[in-house]
Amino acid sequence: MCGERCHIVCSQWRLWIRPLVFFLYGVIILGFVPYLVYTLVIQGIDTFLIAWLIGGIFVFMAIPITIWEIVQHLINYTKPKLQKHIIRILWMVPVYALNAWLVLGFPKWAPYLDAARECYEAYVIYNFMMFLLNFLDDEMDLDATMETKPQTEHFFPLCCLKPWRMGREFIHRCKHGILQYTVFHLMTTFVAFVCGQAGVYEEGKLSPTNFVAMYCLVLFYKAMRRELDPMSPLAKFLCIKAVVFFSFFQGVAIMFLMKAQFMHNLFGIVDDSPESEAKERKTASILQNFLICIEMFIAAVAHHYAFSYKPYMDEEYETGNCCHTFLLIWDISDVRSDIREHVYVVSEGMKRRLTSRGGGWPGGATAVGGSNGGDEHTRLIAPHAHSGSQGTHRYMSTSDSEHDIVIEQGEGSDPEDMKAI
């Protein structure tokens, strides 16, 4: 009898595994962590070592949540054009968490680890913009739909600027704002790394490029809010913004508090000597990375719900090999083609303005598309029933590997078999 019950319980593991995991996480956060802190303080362990150990607990609770979500997307890889960007975004939590935890334990590695993290940060914002464009481009003729929209004005305090003309120009300006952030952030990260090695770089400086990138995302969302509603863009946008910008402003705030000597008594900094300044920078770095370790656990839970794999589940669709799919995620030739295409568009736009041959951007719209109702799962799994346009997809970024798959399937497969490509 006991053997049969155990077999039934094991066979229905999907029903109890999630509550069990949440219960264990709750026990660790509410019980084990406070007990560990109390024990270490009583034993007189160094405060920085305590921060490293506690940060590690939260990091290694956050990473399994993200890995689980990534694996589920790979198993249910029914919409490669969208899910490849989602998986790239989900990797942000492990990258941030491991970076913060390793910098806590090995401060000498900080320049190298922070440079890698900032490069991936720019990559994530680019992928989120492409995720939005690919979703809309699969549903409608995006250029024509945008042209039918009422004029989108700039936000305060930029409301005095001339609005971007709706249509292809508006889309490309938003996309350009993201691409310039991706390219220039890589360049400035390299410069900051070199200057840091030379000892002439100071952390906590503001950079205008990340504000431009996020501004373009917000403006694009404002223009296409109704069309994006079925895929719950606000939750996804807030997850990206919280991780990238909250951690950035948090670091700036900590540096400000240190410079203003509001936290000197708390961390035992007593004078303005060079040794105290070095301790001030070290303490600010430790506090920032410790908080990121804890926040990445919260971010992992938020990403689990915001970028869920469930809308992409389709029992009738046969997905390919997960290992092959995983390798496709890291093919960044689509980024290269997007940058090359946009450089061409910008150069053509400049030529038009210089020669006064009109204000339009190259490649205008040719047909009007629409957007139908339905939730995220319905519109993603059944695009043939909810698609507003069967024309060419202008904004779908395709990597070289994916292009080869499309060609191979197009030569010997049914059109129905290609619906997820």
From TrEMBL:
<keyword id="KW-0472">Membrane</keyword>
<feature type="transmembrane region" description="Helical">
    <location>
        <begin position="206"/>
        <end position="223"/>
    </location>
</feature>
<feature type="transmembrane region" description="Helical">
    <location>
        <begin position="178"/>
        <end position="200"/>
    </location>
</feature>
<protein>
    <recommendedName>
        <fullName>Transmembrane protein 184C</fullName>
    </recommendedName>
</protein>
<dbReference type="Pfam" id="PF03619">
    <property type="entry name" value="Solute_trans_a"/>
</dbReference>
<feature type="transmembrane region" description="Helical">
    <location>
        <begin position="20"/>
        <end position="42"/>
    </location>
</feature>
<dbReference type="GO" id="GO:0016020">
    <property type="term" value="C:membrane"/>
</dbReference>
<feature type="transmembrane region" description="Helical">
    <location>
        <begin position="48"/>
        <end position="68"/>
    </location>
</feature>
<dbReference type="InterPro" id="IPR005178">
    <property type="entry name" value="Ostalpha/TMEM184C"/>
</dbReference>
<feature type="transmembrane region" description="Helical">
    <location>
        <begin position="235"/>
        <end position="258"/>
    </location>
</feature>
<keyword id="KW-1133">Transmembrane helix</keyword>
<feature type="transmembrane region" description="Helical">
    <location>
        <begin position="89"/>
        <end position="108"/>
    </location>
</feature>
<feature type="transmembrane region" description="Helical">
    <location>
        <begin position="120"/>
        <end position="136"/>
    </location>
</feature>
<keyword id="KW-0812">Transmembrane</keyword>
